[in-house]
Amino acid sequence: MTSTTTYREFLAMPRERRAGIEPDEGALRVVIAGGAGALGRNIAADLTCRGHAVTILTRRVDPNLPFAQVVWDGRGLGDWVQTLRGPGPVAVVNLAGKLVDCRPTERNIAELRSSRVDPTAALVAASRTLDRPVERWVQASTTAIWSDAGETRCTETTPLPVGLPQMTGVAEPWERASEGANATHRIVLRTSIVLDPDAPALKRLVQLTRAGLGGRIGRGDQWFSWIHLADWLTLVRAALGLEPEVRLPDGILVAATDHPVRNRELMAALRRHLRRPPAPPTPVGVLRLGAVLLRSDPALGLTGRHTTSEILPRTGFRFRYPTLDEALSDLLAGAVSGSRGTSG
After folding, report:
1. Does the model's pTM come out above 0.90?
2. Is 164 inside any structural domain?
3. Residue 165 is assigned to a structural domain of this protein
4. What is the maximum span of the chain, computed from C-alpha positions, in angstroms?
5. CATH no. for residue 13?
6. Which residues on neighbouring strands pair with residue 57, listed in sequence order?
7. What tens digit of pLDDT does each residue of 15-32 get?
8. Cβ contacts of 175-180, under 8 Å, gap ≥ 24
9. Radius of gyration of the chain measured on its C-alpha atoms
């Protein structure tokens, strides 16, 4: 199977077909820390269908998750270190970390930071006990490392804000914690918003737009950088050395399309694809109040970044969904008909 397979598509397969998928001889063994989350499940499904062996490190085994799972505490060494040993090439995909959709209190920010730094430090310590290096290390990060970048055009070489504001103060130590990894190749994937119909970000935007609240937020000029799930999965495979035509260099890589949009353009595109009429803007005060009620961070809607990669054009990588309209046409293809079927 060569096309990208999402977790949703994997679950839609007949159970017998899923159960019959076995790793190929000499397959890459991929250990995914934080693999029980939305992105981890998609990576696991895609790699499994391509004949690779996947193990998810998790704090709690999910009996409904159809992948091998090993329990760890995300802090110290334990039996889970054995997942990094054994015959054949081994890779690590480190996604471990608490979701950022929470109130920006000092305590929550500290938890966001420790939920990323501690598991990364544990993985690095484990790698240093190995007889041979991990072949590939894909370290998750975020374009939010630039916090609210305003009109700055951020690429891989753009300096970070001084003073480590939120989210810089979370993402910068997260990246730094992986620097001592015993790995032949290490790529830090600074990922923008991943457009996935099952992920919280797009789900919330779709719900608001359907409810008639699909207007711009505040002035609407904040930048929204993004990437389609299928393109992001291709980048992860390339970082694992599984895309022969794409050669990614080690180091920092921005995972975002070449076409960021402003918030007003994002909301207009959502209304267009969901066939909703124009909507009034959401005042900043209303958003802040709503964030309190939802225990969320208003900065998620009020701030933004214009992020693109200056490296990807030289690697052989090509976006399957380079523009927002192309991405939403694919992701929301059944949204309008689905909503009609439940109305009335």
Report:
1. yes
2. yes
3. yes
4. 64
5. 3.40.50.720
6. 33, 70
7. 889 888 999 988 999 999
8. 175/139, 175/141, 175/145, 175/252, 177/116, 177/117, 177/120, 177/121, 177/124, 178/94, 178/120, 178/123, 178/124, 178/137, 178/139, 180/124, 180/128
9. 20
